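Record filed below.
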Amino acid sequence: QVQLVESGGGLVQPGGSLRLSCTASGFTFSRYAMSWYRQAPRKERELVAGIRFSGSTNYADSVAGRFTISRDNAKNTLYLQMNSLNPEDTAVYYCAKSTSSMTIGPIGSWGQGTQVTVSS
């Protein structure tokens, strides 16, 4: 079955960087669009960034220019490089698999999430 396992979260100071990873198994990773979502306390889950099978990407306005989504199809791994982090980026970050190769949604599977906390 589909498994998505996130790693790389943690505590970082404002202005710092983190790289999240999502290791996928149970499906042909290269054929699907993938994305990162996040959910902060008392807020709804929101799309952070998505990448299609073609490699094209899109970002939420709040992270554009600071975050970079990428994929390594040979390693079945999705990444999210996060720079210039600020406290508003604090959230649980989820890896998500689309049901499509061409569109970020609808989402077919979710990872368990990894906590990112930005605080001094």
Notes: The longest strand covers residues 18-25. The CA atoms of residues 98 and 117 lie 26 Å apart. DSSP finds no helices and eleven strands in the chain. The two ends are 40 Å apart (CA to CA).
